[in-house]
Structure formats: structure tokens, C-alpha cells
Amino acid sequence: EIVLSLVVGTALGFLLGILMRRLHAGRDTLIMVFGTVFLATGLSVHFGLSLILTNMAVGFVLANTRRESFLRRATDPLREIMPLLFILFFCLAGAHLRLSELPKLGVVGITYVLARSAGLIGGSRLGGVMGRIDERVKKWIGLGILSQAGVAIGLSLIISSEFTQMAGDPTVAAAVSRYAAANPGASRYMFDPAAIGAAIITVITATSIIFEIIGPILTKVALTKAGEIGKDEASGRPGS
């Protein structure tokens, strides 16, 4: 799945780059980009590949094989509609958030928040030690990367969809029913694909809201503590 996703995405990325050489109007560029995304998505669904990884490979190839002027010509039309796409994406994710399920997933949600935060902060500090970066940056960089949104929610949507389809399989449904009858006290989050899929997207969406609220605040704190905010002004250069 991983290797073929990269292969298909790479091939489509080179193809898109070749075809876009002949395009000049922003409208035509937009159509070509969306057509490539739909083609990558269709091939991924048909062959059981990763939707996200395949499309990321397309963008990776374009970003690393074309000039900056070419990339601007490809991305400028997209910037006009990106706010709408983001709104639709997060509305779709929010539509799967079941508030009634949150109390049942309290321990899982808290564990996820703590484990994710510890992994990001600890991992970034370890990377700082290995990379021998400045002590101030190494100390605070973890707080600057806690925000979570796009990829995590996208993956949770895919997992929820796949688990829901799995639950609709007659063989799986029969096995779930037999297990539930034999273990009446067991939580359905341990064996029912539909319940597991709902739990995953509920936890990811709810915690994404938390991280998107506190993430930017902690990023500003980290940049301030690391001495990065105001650095350009102090040196006489215009701030970014």
C-alpha cells in the first residue's frame, strides 16, 4: 500500500508537471490540478492504496522538480478556493463528532492528549539533542508543534469509513453478534468495527478542537521564550 501509493503519486506528479507546461490560464490550471487529484483518488480507491499518501506524493514531486515560478502558477488559482475547501473539510469532520460519545471516551481522550503531547515534546527535544541545536530552541520547540488538524482528521475519516464498511460485511457482523452474546459485559469499543471507527473519529475531532485552541497560543509562547519573536526587529531587519 505504501510503496504503490508513492509510485502512483510520483508518476501522476510528473505527468501533471508535463501537462501544465502547456497551460497558461488559471482556470485551466485549476481544472488540471483537480483532475489529477480525482484521478489519484480514484486509482487509490480502486487498488486499495492510501488516498492521502498518493496525493501528497503528487505535490512532493511538483515541489521538488519544478521552478518556483511554475509552482506559483500551479498554486495561485488554488489559493482562491482553499478557504472554502477548508470550511467544507472541517464541517465534514465536525458532522462526525458525537458529543454523546465523549463521556464514554474520556479516559481514551485524556490518554491520547497526554501521550501525543509527550511524544511531540519528547521527540522534538531528542531531535534537538541529536542535532545539537541552540538550547533555547531545543527547550521550547515541542510546544510549537502541538497543533493538530488536517492529516489527522483526514486519516480518522478514512478509518471510520473503512471500519463502517467492515461492520456491514455479513461475516463480520455475525462474528460481532456472537462475541457480544458470549461476552455481554464487554465494551463494544473492543470488538465492534462500527463502534471503533466512531470512537476514533470522535477522539481525533474532539482533541483537534482542543489542540487548535491551545496550539497557536503555545506556539507564540514557545517563539517568545526561544527569543525568535522580535529577533528581526532587534537586528534592524523587517519582521516576517
Describe the structure.
This protein has 240 residues and is an all-alpha fold. It has 10 helices and no strands. It has helices spanning 2-20, 26-47, 51-65, 68-95, 106-131, 135-140, 150-167, 170-182, 193-225, 231-234. Helix 1 (2-20) crosses helix 3 and helix 7 packs antiparallel against helix 9 (193-225). The mean pLDDT is 82.
**Number of H- or I-type helical stretches:** 10
Overall pLDDT score: 82
Report the order of strands and helices. HHHHHHHHHH
C-alpha Rg, in Å? 22 Å
The helix content is: over 70%
- Structural class call reads mainly alpha
Low-confidence stretches: none
What coarse outline follows from CA principal-axis ratios? globular
Strand content: under 5%
**Distance N to C terminus:** 40 Å
Largest sheet data: none
The tally of strands reads 0
Write the layout of secondary structure elements.
Blueprint (H helix, E strand, L loop, with lengths): L1 H19 L5 H22 L3 H15 L2 H28 L10 H26 L3 H6 L9 H18 L2 H13 L10 H33 L5 H4 L6
Helix pairs in contact: 1-2, 1-3, 2-3, 2-4, 5-9, 7-9
